[in-house]
Write the structure tokens for this entry.
Amino acid sequence: MVTSNFEYFAPESFDEAAALLAKHRDAAKILAGGQSLLPVLKLRLAAPEVLIDLSNVPELSGVSSDGDGLTIGAMTTYYDLSQSAEIQKAAPAIIEATSHVADVQVRNRGTIGGSLSHSDPAGDMPAVFLALNGSAVARTRRGTREIASDRWFVDLFATALRPTEIVTQIKIPTASGKSGSAYAKFENPASRYALAGVAASVSIGSDGNVSAARVAVTGVGSKATRAKRTERILIGKEPTASVIRRAADRAAAEIQDDLTEDIHASGEYRSHLAGVMAEQAITSAVERAG
Amino acid sequence: MTLVGESVKRIEDPRLITGKGTYVGDVSVPGMLHMQIVRSPHGHANIKNIDVSAANSSPGVVAIFTGADIAEQLGSLPVGWVLDEEMKQPPHPPLATDRVRMVGDAVAVVVADSIAEAVEAAELVDVDYEVLEAVVSAVDAQKSDAPQLHEEAPGNLAFKWEIEGGDWAETVKNADVVVKQDIINQRLIPNAIETRGVVADYNPGTDQITMWTSTQIPHLVRLLFTLVTGHPESKVRIIAPEVGGAFGSKLYLYAEEVIAGIVAKQLARPVRWIESRQENYVATAHGRDHISTAEIAGNKDGEITGINVVVNANLGAYLSTFAPLIPTILFGVMLAGQYKIQNVKCKVLGVFTNTTPTDAYRGAGRPEATYLLERMVDRFAQEIGRDPVTVRRKNMINAFRNGYETPTGVMYDTGNFKGALNKALEHFDYQGFRKEQREARRNGKLLGVGFSSYIEITGMAPSAVASSLGAGAGLWESSTLRVHPTGSVSVYSGTAPSGQGHETSFAQMVASQLGVAMENIEVHHGDTDKQQFGTGTFGSRSLAVGGAALHMSLEKVIAKAKKIAAHQLGVPEKQIELVNGTFIVEDIPESSIGFGDVALEAYLAKNLPPGMEPGLEATSFFDPENFTWPFGTHIAVVELDADTGEVKLKRYVAVDDVGNVMNPMIVDGMVHGGITQGIGQALWENGVYGDDAQLLSGSMLDYALPIAKNLPSYETDRTVTPTKVNPLGAKGAGEAGTIAACPAIVNACVDALNHLGVTHIDMPVTSEKVWRILDEKKKAHPRRK
């Protein structure tokens, strides 16, 4: 449990961090809360030559909101997310997800930007990010771009982030009309990651029918994925228990060729659990929208 | 002053919970080097070549040893229990020389100035392996085309052990019903919170080896180390400092202990090795791993007449120190349990496979036996359509105070099985539960209750009996009680705790008998230069055997002190008694002398009774005439989630009888921990190997340990049936919970699905297993929700 040797930098400004990353590119890893990276280093599954620690870079933490939505600093810890009244109001699914992440020690260190950049296939935050239609602000020395959550998750532990980019903010847009969000998770009894986790965000129109819905699944396939068939079944209908159940049943429909199978659960069981969790998440999201 | 039976707070806790305990990892010796072990990544392979040239030139490297370099000095790890002459004992070299037989087998050691340099260099050791076919299941390993692990053990068979009491064949002929069931008791990985570790120091001037090691058996480590290496026992000191959990996994001589000792001697430098958690998963002994077939026979009125069991016991790649004992004697003789079953037959095949060796894990053999028997009692009850409690009660042995001989030839000491069952039922409204269960089923909810009435074998052990059964060491225990001139007391016990609170329990005994304040009593353990000998801590023996030895020393010290007091006070000894730390003369309360003053007189020696030796101390050896036999009944209530299959534990009632109790709080703590480990096995824990002999559950990310949020508050109580085997009347409490919990939980899960015709679920009862059962039933009867 000893890491390989690496060079460690703790830059004190974003530009300094970005310059280091531009210099070392693939040889470097960004260190945020370290809750995924350090175990990987200790197990020697990765041996980066350079670590760039963002702890001393100012203005990467904190939550703010305006009419457009929430802006969350990438270095905001799970604990700080869980304590934010603004998030509780606008995106309760985030609060729910943080309560499911590991233990107190991890929540005190782990960050939202770190989680999304790491993109664990069974992480909680990726599903919530997708369901809330979030986007990540990626910045280099030269400029900034915003990457939509729908384009963020590329493959197993792979995101749309380029080697010289650093995530600085996560943006969550304000949902239209009466809306609610929720996250439901069935834990892997060993790792406590998701065997199946489902985040749902639902808006209800003035006619009482679902006007918009985003549902995303984690833990079931190689990356967090939208459950678009579930969404299509919901949209335009009154969210009755039977509609929700029918929609939830299709939660893993998009991932049938990409089901995770391991000693903890078959793909078939994960797929089933996705349906059960989707029903719970959608039901609470609808209640919250009401 | 009486402290016996009181929940005195543990005196070892302040230092442990404030981070002031000294574990092996806290030991530092000047000039200490660090050792990293190169381990096999393959389950089975020939070693073609080991190239250490690149590693040798890595920074900080002091030395690298391969098996070929030091095989002779390292010898072969011994087996401490030999069942019979037929048992195969293939060599177990601490460092493999020509072949590796499991993932984690040690092939080389790198010694460097720092652990980081040792780890870096170890990665550069280039081992050329010729990978061989591997086998991981005890059943597959016996097939004719299975890869062979050891030339000495054809068919991968280490031993075949059989026992029969009564006549099984006749029992089958006469029985109304015979129920047969295949049952798996899965592999477990102990996961003590402190991994193993060794610091070895060698003094070239005195030829003395001093070794700090995280072990349950310091004296046996010394003995076995000498047997293996030839280094004189008188020149070896083993120190077990604080030990952070063991559960049986630190009950053996391990390769790393021999390697560290010999490397320190070769280099004449201190060497440190601390096992990483990753290594701990493959290099520290595992537990259980039985594939069994059981048959239970009986009559329609509920009488159970016999049980027959065939077990394929997976021993792993080599025989660990006590491996042959666990699945045989500690298992087979227990198969009649609390019942009047007169016919018991058991055959055990001990099998080598390309896996980490298995050995004792909390309960060691008794959990396997109890699970099998209590599962089969439920199977039988279900088959004849009778209530599981009624069947248990009908077959239970009546209360006895002077021994009960089982058909397997062992003598239970004392018992009141129905007493414990009745008390458990007092805590649990059984009829009320059945009503609730029926209502719940109507609402689509799946509730179940499971019973487990167990008896176990503890207080190890009567040495002559153990020796006749194969033990390679006496299993008595010793104590020295030394009263200092100022009246404070040092106790030296051969037991070696790993969290059980011996210091408190033993100090309570001394305080209550001598009247010395708790803070003036020091209990020493785990150092072979302090304690003359001891067997260690395992098999729930420390109070029943080690405490009994202390009791004997207390009696000797009191007897001598009384003589001194009588002499000082000028009265006959028979007129004196020791009350709360003061010797007082009968009827003359003003004539008295404090215990501390007597101690001082013993050392001043100016006015002792004629012929008496100075000093005030005693050493005693206690060798029990029998084992002790704790028992009890546990009840578990579960609810199965109809959507996910998840097992939710709703209630857990435990009534244990561990004989007399020294410290109820400590016993409760052990019961709680034991139950939790049992629940862990029943619902979550599973050591899984792939067909390529890779350990798939090789980290805490993949091996599911129980956590507090998934457990209910336990309801515990006791009955007290003292044993006559030792003067304390104590039986032993360390393992009971683990033994009882598995069948209680699994029986509850099966009970919850009883109405669907489910008869058995193998452990761990995962959510997916339950979901599959429900899913299949749903598909078979689509209209039934």
The first helix of chain B runs from residue 13 to 17. The radius of gyration of chain B is 28 Å.
